[in-house]
Specification:
Helix content is 17%, strand content 42%. It has one helix and eight strands; from the N terminus they run H-E-E-E-E-E-E-E-E. It is α+β, with helices and mostly antiparallel strands and 120 residues long. The protein has a five-stranded mixed sheet, with no helix packed on it. Strands 1-3-6 form a three-stranded antiparallel sheet, with no helix packed on it. It has a single domain, classed as Immunoglobulins (Immunoglobulin-like), CATH 2.60.40.
Amino acid sequence: MRIIIIALSTILFACNEGFNSAPDPPDTPETVIIRIDVIPNPVQVGDTVTFIGIIEDSLKKSFNYVWSTPLNPSSVKTANNIYKVLVDMGQGDYSGTLIVDDTTKTNLSPTKNFNFRVIQ
Protein backbone atom coordinates (compact mmCIF):
# COMPACT_ATOMS: atom_id res chain seq x y z
CA MET A 1 0.00 0.00 0.00
CA ARG A 2 2.83 2.33 0.89
CA ILE A 3 4.46 1.75 -2.53
CA ILE A 4 1.19 2.65 -4.29
CA ILE A 5 0.93 5.92 -2.36
CA ILE A 6 4.54 6.83 -3.18
CA ALA A 7 4.01 5.92 -6.84
CA LEU A 8 0.83 8.04 -7.04
CA SER A 9 2.57 10.97 -5.31
CA THR A 10 5.44 10.78 -7.79
CA ILE A 11 3.09 10.71 -10.77
CA LEU A 12 1.04 13.65 -9.51
CA PHE A 13 4.19 15.66 -8.75
CA ALA A 14 5.58 14.94 -12.24
CA CYS A 15 2.31 15.94 -13.90
CA ASN A 16 2.15 19.15 -11.90
CA GLU A 17 5.71 20.06 -12.93
CA GLY A 18 4.82 19.37 -16.56
CA PHE A 19 1.92 21.83 -16.44
CA ASN A 20 4.03 24.54 -14.81
CA SER A 21 6.97 24.19 -17.20
CA ALA A 22 5.16 25.54 -20.28
CA PRO A 23 5.59 29.31 -20.67
CA ASP A 24 2.56 31.54 -20.76
CA PRO A 25 1.75 32.88 -24.22
CA PRO A 26 2.66 36.56 -24.73
CA ASP A 27 -0.06 39.14 -24.21
CA THR A 28 -1.60 40.51 -27.38
CA PRO A 29 -3.51 43.74 -27.77
CA GLU A 30 -7.27 43.40 -27.83
CA THR A 31 -7.58 46.57 -29.88
CA VAL A 32 -6.85 46.38 -33.60
CA ILE A 33 -6.49 49.42 -35.86
CA ILE A 34 -8.25 48.34 -39.03
CA ARG A 35 -7.43 51.42 -41.10
CA ILE A 36 -6.95 55.18 -41.04
CA ASP A 37 -9.02 57.26 -43.44
CA VAL A 38 -7.57 60.57 -44.65
CA ILE A 39 -10.18 63.00 -45.99
CA PRO A 40 -9.48 64.55 -48.44
CA ASN A 41 -6.41 62.88 -49.82
CA PRO A 42 -4.73 64.65 -51.49
CA VAL A 43 -5.34 67.81 -49.47
CA GLN A 44 -4.55 71.33 -50.63
CA VAL A 45 -2.30 73.70 -48.70
CA GLY A 46 -4.52 75.89 -46.49
CA ASP A 47 -7.35 73.35 -46.27
CA THR A 48 -8.28 71.16 -43.32
CA VAL A 49 -7.48 67.46 -43.38
CA THR A 50 -9.40 64.92 -41.30
CA PHE A 51 -7.84 61.70 -40.03
CA ILE A 52 -10.25 58.97 -38.85
CA GLY A 53 -8.99 55.90 -37.03
CA ILE A 54 -11.17 52.82 -37.54
CA ILE A 55 -10.61 50.29 -34.76
CA GLU A 56 -12.03 47.03 -33.48
CA ASP A 57 -12.09 46.04 -29.83
CA SER A 58 -14.13 43.36 -28.14
CA LEU A 59 -13.96 44.60 -24.55
CA LYS A 60 -13.03 48.25 -24.06
CA LYS A 61 -15.26 51.29 -24.47
CA SER A 62 -12.89 54.16 -23.74
CA PHE A 63 -9.76 54.99 -25.75
CA ASN A 64 -7.17 57.69 -26.20
CA TYR A 65 -6.03 58.30 -29.75
CA VAL A 66 -2.51 59.68 -30.10
CA TRP A 67 -1.80 61.23 -33.51
CA SER A 68 1.70 62.06 -34.74
CA THR A 69 2.00 63.99 -38.00
CA PRO A 70 4.41 66.57 -39.38
CA LEU A 71 1.51 69.06 -39.13
CA ASN A 72 2.21 69.48 -35.38
CA PRO A 73 5.54 69.61 -33.55
CA SER A 74 4.29 67.16 -30.90
CA SER A 75 1.77 64.33 -30.65
CA VAL A 76 -1.90 65.21 -30.27
CA LYS A 77 -4.20 63.17 -28.01
CA THR A 78 -7.93 62.97 -28.78
CA ALA A 79 -10.72 61.22 -26.88
CA ASN A 80 -12.42 60.18 -30.10
CA ASN A 81 -11.20 58.65 -33.34
CA ILE A 82 -11.19 61.89 -35.37
CA TYR A 83 -8.39 64.43 -35.68
CA LYS A 84 -8.73 67.56 -37.83
CA VAL A 85 -5.89 69.95 -38.57
CA LEU A 86 -5.13 72.84 -40.92
CA VAL A 87 -2.52 72.00 -43.54
CA ASP A 88 0.14 74.72 -43.48
CA MET A 89 3.07 72.87 -45.00
CA GLY A 90 4.51 72.57 -48.47
CA GLN A 91 3.54 70.25 -51.24
CA GLY A 92 4.71 66.65 -50.85
CA ASP A 93 4.05 63.19 -49.51
CA TYR A 94 3.89 62.82 -45.73
CA SER A 95 3.30 60.07 -43.19
CA GLY A 96 1.88 59.92 -39.70
CA THR A 97 1.28 57.45 -36.91
CA LEU A 98 -1.76 56.59 -34.82
CA ILE A 99 -1.43 54.91 -31.42
CA VAL A 100 -4.62 53.71 -29.74
CA ASP A 101 -4.42 53.47 -25.95
CA ASP A 102 -7.25 51.57 -24.22
CA THR A 103 -6.46 53.50 -21.00
CA THR A 104 -5.26 50.40 -19.13
CA LYS A 105 -1.75 50.19 -17.73
CA THR A 106 -0.57 47.53 -20.19
CA ASN A 107 1.99 48.43 -22.82
CA LEU A 108 0.00 46.81 -25.60
CA SER A 109 -1.20 49.86 -27.51
CA PRO A 110 -1.48 49.12 -31.23
CA THR A 111 0.22 51.44 -33.70
CA LYS A 112 -0.48 52.05 -37.39
CA ASN A 113 1.21 54.31 -39.92
CA PHE A 114 -0.63 56.24 -42.64
CA ASN A 115 0.27 58.41 -45.62
CA PHE A 116 -1.19 61.55 -47.14
CA ARG A 117 -0.34 63.97 -49.92
CA VAL A 118 -0.32 67.77 -49.86
CA ILE A 119 -0.86 69.62 -53.13
CA GLN A 120 -0.89 73.31 -54.14
